[in-house]
Structures are given as C-alpha cells and as structure tokens.
C-alpha cells in the first residue's frame, strides 16, 4: 500500500495474467468504509483472500435478517396460509397485504443460496429488519397473543412470542 496526499493506493495482481496495477478506492468506497468504522485499508482487499466490503456488509445484513426473522420457513409458510395472516395489514388497493407479500418473499430468500442472492433480496432483507424493529418498539400493552400487531409481525417472519 502506498499513501499519498490523494489517499491510499493498493497494488493488485491480476489472477489471469499476473500483471500488477494500482487501485485507489473510490470516494463512495472510502465514505462507506468510514461510516462502517473500517479503515480505508480494508476497503480493497483484492488478491488477499479477505472478504470485500460488500461481502462484509452482506454477511452483516444476513445475520441481522436471521435475527429479525425468528420463524422457520415451515412455520412462516403455514402461518401465511392461515386466515389470520390474510386478514391483517395494509393492502394499498391490492388483493394481498404488504406484509403477506413480504412473508412470501422471505420464504423465497430463505430458500435461496447465499451466492444467488441479489441486490433486490438484500434490499428486502433491510426492509424486513426495519419493519420488525419499528413494530417491536410499538408493542401494545397486555396480552398480545391474538392481536393484529402480532399477526402483522408474523407476516414479516417474526413471532414476538417465540423464544
């Protein structure tokens, strides 16, 4: 690694022909690394066998998603077939509620190999995490066992009564 007034520069070697070239992380890469608490030296690890920043972000997102979605695929599929599941949530003029559609997407994502996940899948994971966190913070008082609040969360793959 060389450091100059312009910032760090990394030497990377092509696996195809062995030639070396300099790589300077782009401004978005440097800014993203800074926000993620990583030194700019971690932004580009080409040829070093270490995960890239995007791979680290995706792994972190999958971990958060797995924490937020505490229902198994089978539990979620069975729940989505229930009358209660189909009666809650905002339909925004569609036949299916947003949460019910999300539940079907969660099942698909959970069945997809990690290497086959795409940007839309990671965006949906982020959306699920946000929804679950927001709605857990709005827990109603009293018994929530048979409430629209719980049923809505379950459509998004999270059963607040599950331990």
From TrEMBL:
One Pfam family, short name: DUF3140
Transmembrane spans: none
Residue stretches of biased makeup (Basic and acidic residues): 1-34
Region of interest called Disordered, as start-end residue ranges on this chain: 1-59, 80-103
PANTHER family per the UniProt record, alphabetical: DNA-BINDING PROTEIN, POSSIBLE DNA-BINDING PROTEIN
Protein name per the record: DNA-binding protein
Species for this entry: Marinactinospora thermotolerans DSM 45154
């Amino acid at each position: 690694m060389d450091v100059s007034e312009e910032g760090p520069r990394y030497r990377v070697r092509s696996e195809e022909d062995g030639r070396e070239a300099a790589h300077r992380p782009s401004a978005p890469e440097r800014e993203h690394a800074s926000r993620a608490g990583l030194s700019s030296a971690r932004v580009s690890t080409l040829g070093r066998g270490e995960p890239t920043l995007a791979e680290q972000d995706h792994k972190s997102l999958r971990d958060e998603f797995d924490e937020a979605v505490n229902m198994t695929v089978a539990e979620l599929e069975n729940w989505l077939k229930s009358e209660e599941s189909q009666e809650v949530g905002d339909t925004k003029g569609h036949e299916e509620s947003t949460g019910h559609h999300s539940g079907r997407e969660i099942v698909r994502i959970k069945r997809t190999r990690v290497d086959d996940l795409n940007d839309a899948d990671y965006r949906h994971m982020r959306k699920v995490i946000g929804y679950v966190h927001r709605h857990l913070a709005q827990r109603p008082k009293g018994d929530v066992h048979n409430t629209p609040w719980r049923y809505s969360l379950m459509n998004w793959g999270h059963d607040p009564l599950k331990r």
